[in-house]
Design a protein that fits this description.
ABC transporter involved in vitamin B12 uptake, BtuC
């Protein structure tokens, strides 16, 4: 029972991070209709920027994390203005190719500066915390708490603010929302900035527990994308559920067959999608 609790708690921690990445996919998909395959690189940038700010600039831990998130959000905004908006009206395949190209450019740019792997110090707290007989680190608990806070803030923003409701209107009917006078271009830019910032939060949270490098974005982006598809593409609750399921499956698979943890996780995704092709949950933001 203790081992099971350990696997679940660890899976919840990493799954929350995957869920945040999945939310980034959902935000851009709902607002623009584009599946942004550069989302994983925003996660990588968040981790790498936090390393740069803490080690090179000497910023305190929290300041470096916040700065990394803000700078990555700015990168997302620039990407939308320079690469996505000029290609407005292109086919779905063309848009996907563009985002893959963006991913390659970001990855190559970071690789030009460093190809090393980095970690940052864990957030403050006791060395280990006992929950129901299972021992977890403070960083694991921080990941779950911060992740859930971000999810709540995104939900409240979308539900109770005018801009958030405009994003939801775009998700329901882009053409209708545009006809009503909503600024589609500005909302598109905002969705990319938000998704990049949320991805950066995921990168900041995962860097203390696993090494971050210029190559990590593809793997993390794939896990987040699988979480979004598993939960139901476009569904905010589904993104979190899908990410957590991927995290728990990965953690359990690592214990049972350490060399095949990704195979087990992705096999579960395929099984669920075979039963429910639309994902676990349907609906928009």
């Amino acid at each position: 029972m203790t081992d099971l609790t350990q696997y679940i708690l660890t899976g919840l921690s990493i799954g929350t991070i995957y869920g945040l990445i999945a939310i980034g996919f959902d935000l851009t998909y709902n607002t623009t209709g584009i599946i942004n395959f550069a989302q994983g690189e925003f996660v990588m940038l968040g981790g790498m920027f936090s390393v740069a700010f803490s080690r090179l600039v000497g910023m305190p831990m929290w300041a470096s994390m916040v700065s990394a998130v803000l700078l990555t959000a700015l990168v997302g905004l620039v990407v939308e203005r320079t690469a996505i908006r000029p290609a407005k009206g292109t086919s779905l395949t063309g848009a996907i190719i563009i985002t893959i190209g963006i991913s390659i450019v970001i990855k190559a740019t970071v690789g030009c500066f460093t190809k090393d792997e980095f970690v940052i110090p864990s957030l403050p707290g006791p060395e280990s915390i006992n929950i129901l007989g299972a021992s977890i680190t403070a960083q694991t608990l921080w990941n779950m708490c911060i992740g859930m806070i971000i999810v709540f803030l995104v939900w409240a923003f979308l539900k109770y603010t005018f801009v958030g409701m405009a994003l939801r209107a775009m998700a329901e009917n882009r053409q209708g929302a545009t006809n009503l006078g909503l600024a589609a271009d500005r909302l598109s830019a905002l969705s990319f900035a938000l998704s990049a910032g949320i991805g950066a939060v995921a990168g900041v949270l995962i860097t203390p527990i696993t090494q971050m490098s210029w190559l990590r974005g593809t793997d993390l982006g794939l896990k987040g994308f699988c979480g979004a598809v598993l939960g139901g593409m476009g569904s905010l609750p589904g993104a979190i559920i899908g990410g957590i399921l991927i995290g728990i499956a990965e953690t359990t698979g690592n214990v049972l067959l350490s060399g095949y943890k990704d195979v087990i996780a992705f096999s579960i995704v395929l099984l669920v999608l075979y039963i429910k092709p639309q994902g676990i949950m349907k609906g928009r933001l």
